[in-house]
Amino acid sequence: MHIAIARRARALAGAVGLVLVAGCGLLGGSDDDSKSGGNAAPAGADASAAAPGGPTAPGASETPVVPGAADPAGTITLAFAGDVHFNERTVPRLNAGADTALGPISKTLAAADLAMVNFESAITERGTPEAKTYHFRAPASALPVLAKSGVDVVSMANNHAVDYGPVGLQDSLAAAKNPPIPVIGIGPDAAAAYKPWITEVKGVKVAFLAASQVQDITNQKYAAGPGKPGIASALKADQLVAAVKTAKAKANVVVVYMHWGIEGDKCPSADQKGLAKKLADAGATAVVGTHAHVMQGAGMLGNTYVDYGFGNFLWYGTSPYPNSNDTGVTTLTIGGGKVVKEAFTPASVDSRGVPMPQTGAEAKRITDRRDGLRPCTGLAAAPE
């Protein structure tokens, strides 16, 4: 079944808009949704449309780093960022006008062949709040807004996907049924929640999966099961590991986007490290994730790239942890089925909750701090 992804050409500057194209699909699409080769838009999208830009803040770069622009034919680039939602100060980003919801860093996401974030929210305007402290939700219009910001696929396997109970979950599943961009890690049953979205770019098939390892009310009450709607859970790794092995048999590259870790902790937990090893052994090309609200370290686990935590990205408020506004976009170049280059575009979450790309001393500080987190991960440095 075909999904038309709202996409844009990889214009590096002077980008002003794009055409959103409606499509059909089921919860992130079929096992083999194809995308045309090169830096072209997928079938159905307007290949002549450009990536939107936006105003810059003091200290922000007007031309964010665009990794992979001169890479040889046959390689692909994948861009990743952290937690995104539309609550409190970020609600106006749903109607950002000529700007994109994510601001100028959208150009960095758009420059990659495929870009992914975690959508930390239920997609509903109804429902009853669950018995928890924080509740996040957004209207279904958030998905095309993210598509306009350069995002190609989102994970909803997180601890806020069912903040508004069964009614909210029903609405989220309805929004994900015919999405402008694939939504993974959630479904009407376990088979759908653990199902990868597989697409093809430059002749390379890429599979994306998502799951949550966070021990919370969402994983307790709303883990997907046989005939039971909910999120893909990784509290027990077996089903996720099996899904990775199955995806590896169908795709050249397998990405697993995790929700995991301990809030505020800059180092990965033993549970994170243990699961990363299992996913790497199962054939994952890259294992990436969020949840801690701060950046965690990244590097290589054998042939598998691991980034334990991207941190906040489009965020409703300042988290009560040091350096919680430090963020950025990680762009991986994949060649021969493995990561051959990592590039990081540093950003800082501003007073509007928007991740603004940085230059100069602040960019160096964020990048150096990120690189300094690697020792506690036990990972080797990624290729540059």
UniProtKB/TrEMBL annotation:
Biased composition (Low complexity): 36-60
Biased composition (Basic and acidic residues): 362-373
Region (Disordered): 33-68, 349-384
Limits of the Capsule synthesis protein CapA domain: 77-317
Highest rank taxon of the organism: Bacteria
Pfam families cross-referenced by the UniProt entry: PGA_cap
Family of this protein: Belongs to the CapA family.
PANTHER family referenced in this protein's UniProt entry, alphabetically: PGA BIOSYNTHESIS PROTEIN CAPA, POLYGLUTAMINE SYNTHESIS ACCESSORY PROTEIN RV0574C-RELATED
Name of this chain's protein: CapA family protein
Organism of origin: Yinghuangia aomiensis
Source taxonomy: Bacteria, Bacillati, Actinomycetota, Actinomycetes, Kitasatosporales
